[in-house]
């Protein structure tokens, strides 16, 4: 009875945190659809300058995640979650009211900082509410919400922009933030690192933010600046040089931004590496599919968004059962088939799609395959990395995993832009087919990394048992994990 009540509380906490995760993740992609309308309203600004409304959010969000996770450990996960929700809500209102392009860009950066506070603290609030052998299911839902938000950004954004205008993309965040605040105050329980005192290592935080921010900046702006330009190479090299300096700093601090012991845990390092690869393929696919529907099949923006809806729906329906399967049988048993299904969906596009629209014959079944693959894989990769962490490292681990996903997303967008180039109508088809084929290989590589190198920690609790209808309780410990 008491266990059931505890789990019920856990699911309530998950629902509250999921609202924050959805909004933060949605705003990574939804503004892409609003960009043409924003450009019309701020016609005095160049498109290159306005693009910082997109790039600024992605760069600031990725750069701040690790520091946000450390702040949550030190000052309390519940406190930081609500600070993040408040900042995100106020910045969303400011975005919607923006009188100029410069104001909008500044508000987007502040919005990203609020989102960075929300994401790692939210998972750190949820996981202690579940026993270790049930955490994969919880992370499955948590991760599915983020993936669903990113995937539904184009379709939801197109409907909102078309019916209400681009400013409502931001205004609609506010009531949902208020709802999370009101319901979360009585449900979420405060927790923090017991032995932490004083501020986290500020120099280390600046180095981490600078390293991630500069690398993501080079990736995001590489297409506009030129990948061989001095600015792109300079930003990327500076970010790369900062990484070993940051790691050296962490090794000498009592309260480092990143506990290097996490990187020595095989399960954590392998799952996050695979997650980066999977995110690269997933976010690149979202961009490529929209470009194909609009540019080759001549769909409207709204039509393209709606055409991509089946994938997110199947992903959402699959994610929670995938988490329960991972709890019972182990993460590899779920993730590897997921990557194969996702790759099959993209291979179908590469081999069978035709310039003449054939949505129901090719794009729709591909969406089902990739959707199920995403549902099985993306959130289960998160649970493979974080489900076995000690409670004191939930926020830090979640922040690192989110950073890997953001870098993967930025790499995916840059790779897609580079692979597609700017082909004319005559050679566009070949460019898209080659891009889907390459992304198929990237996704299969992420599954291969998990298959060959992932091992659950020896100290982890055994997987839950599988109870089959009409049979005895059958332990699932013999299945490879």
Protein model, in words:
With 481 residues, this protein is mainly alpha-helical. The chain has two domains: 408 residues, MFS general substrate transporter like domains (Growth Hormone, Chain: A); 54 residues, no CATH class. Helix content is 76%, strand content 1%. The protein contains 17 helices and two strands. Strands 1-2 form a two-stranded antiparallel sheet. Strand 1 and strand 2 form a beta hairpin. Helix 3 packs antiparallel against helix 16, helix 6 crosses helix 15 and helix 14 runs antiparallel to helix 15. The protein is globular. The C terminus is likely disordered.
Which tags fit this structure?
two-stranded antiparallel ribbon, 1% strand, 481 residues, Growth Hormone, Chain: A, mainly alpha, disordered C terminus, 76% helix
- Shape descriptor reads globular
Number of domains: 2
Reported for the largest beta sheet, the result is: 2 strands, antiparallel
What's the SSE pattern? HHHHHHHHHHHHHHHHHEE
- For the record, the CATH class of the largest domain is Mainly Alpha
* Helix percentage: over 70%
**CATH T-level topology of the largest domain:** Growth Hormone, Chain: A
């Amino acid at each position: 009875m008491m266990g059931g009540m505890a789990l019920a509380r856990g699911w309530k906490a998950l629902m509250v945190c999921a609202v924050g995760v959805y909004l933060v993740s949605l705003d990574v992609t939804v503004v892409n659809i609003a960009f043409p309308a924003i450009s019309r309203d701020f016609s005095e600004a160049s498109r290159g300058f306005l693009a910082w409304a997109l790039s600024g959010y992605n760069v600031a969000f990725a750069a701040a995640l690790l520091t946000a996770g450390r702040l949550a450990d030190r000052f309390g996960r519940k406190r930081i979650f609500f600070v993040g929700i408040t900042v995100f809500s106020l910045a969303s209102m400011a975005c919607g009211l923006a009188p100029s392009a410069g104001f909008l860009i500044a508000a987007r950066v502040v919005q990203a900082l609020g989102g960075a506070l929300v994401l790692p603290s939210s998972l750190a609030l949820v996981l202690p509410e579940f026993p270790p052998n049930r955490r994969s299911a919880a992370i499955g839902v948590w991760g599915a919400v983020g993936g669903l938000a990113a995937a539904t950004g184009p379709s939801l954004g197109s409907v909102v922009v078309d019916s209400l205008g681009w400013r409502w993309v931001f205004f609609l965040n506010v009531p949902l933030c208020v709802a999370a605040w009101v319901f979360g105050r009585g449900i979420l329980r405060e927790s923090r690192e017991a032995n932490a005192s004083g501020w986290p290592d500020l120099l280390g935080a600046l180095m981490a933010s600078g390293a991630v921010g500069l690398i993501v900046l080079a990736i995001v702006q590489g297409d506009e600046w030129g990948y061989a330009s001095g600015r792109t190479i300079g930003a990327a090299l500076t970010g790369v040089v900062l990484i070993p300096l940051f790691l050296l700093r962490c090794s000498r601090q009592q309260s480092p931004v990143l506990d290097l012991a996490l990187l020595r845990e095989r399960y954590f390092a392998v799952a996050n590496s695979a997650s980066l690869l999977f995110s690269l393929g997933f976010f690149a696919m979202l961009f490529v599919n929209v470009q194909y529907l609009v540019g080759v099949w001549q769909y409207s923006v709204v039509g393209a968004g709606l055409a991509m809806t089946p994938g997110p729906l199947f992903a959402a329906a699959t994610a929670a059962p995938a988490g329960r399967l991972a709890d019972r049988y182990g993460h590899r048993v779920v993730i590897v088939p997921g990557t194969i299904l996702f790759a099959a969906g993209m291979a179908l596009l590469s081999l069978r799609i035709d310039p003449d629209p054939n949505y129901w014959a090719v794009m729709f079944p591909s969406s089902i395959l990739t959707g199920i693959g995403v549902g099985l894989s993306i959130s289960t990769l998160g649970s493979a990395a974080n489900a076995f962490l000690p409670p004191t490292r939930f926020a830090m681990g979640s922040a690192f995993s989110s950073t890997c996903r953001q870098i993967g997303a930025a790499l995916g967008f840059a790779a897609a832009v580079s692979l597609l180039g700017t082909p004319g109508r005559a050679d566009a088809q070949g460019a898209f087919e080659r891009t889907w084929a390459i992304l198929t290989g990237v996704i299969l590589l992420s599954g291969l990394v998990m298959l060959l190198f992932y091992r659950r920690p020896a100290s982890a609790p055994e997987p839950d048992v599988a109870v089959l209808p009409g049979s005895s309780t059958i332990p699932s410990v013999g299945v490879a994990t």
